[in-house]
Amino acid sequence: MVFQTAREAGWLIEPARAMHVGFGLVLGANGKKLASRAGETIKLADLLTEAVARADALVNPELDAGTRAEVAQAVGIGAIKYVDLSSDRGKDYVFTWAKMLSFRR
Asked: CB neighbours (10 Å) of residue 52?
């Protein structure tokens, strides 16, 4: 129904096609699915903020404030992208702050 609605709204115009791509579940430390209805999920904004803050703690303190902020943002968000893209999207994975915000692989 979503794809048909997109076609009817003019958002999905031939030759473009849409297809469902499945992925695994994000699990909590207890091995159970993080349920958004139960309020157990981690908000993306919180994850990004924490990643940038942790990266900022590692950035060369001799840099000026503007450069330091730019580097911290690039490194923090880059670390999250790497972790997310380095796992098989079809498999479940356990969310931990340490794993998502690790600057080592």
From this structure: 19
- Residue 67 DSSP SS3: helix
**Mean pLDDT of all residues in the chain?**
87
Q: Report d(CA 63, CA 18) in Å as an integer.
A: 46
pLDDT confidence of residue 98? 79
Q: ω before 15 within 30° of 0 (cis)?
A: yes
Question: Of 100, 105, 58, 97, which Cα lies nearest the Cα of 77?
Answer: 100
Q: What is the pTM of this model?
A: 0.68
Give the H or E element holding residue 94. Answer: strand 93-94
CB 31 within 8 A of CB 94: yes
Q: Which residue spans within the chain are E strands per DSSP? A: 26-27, 93-94
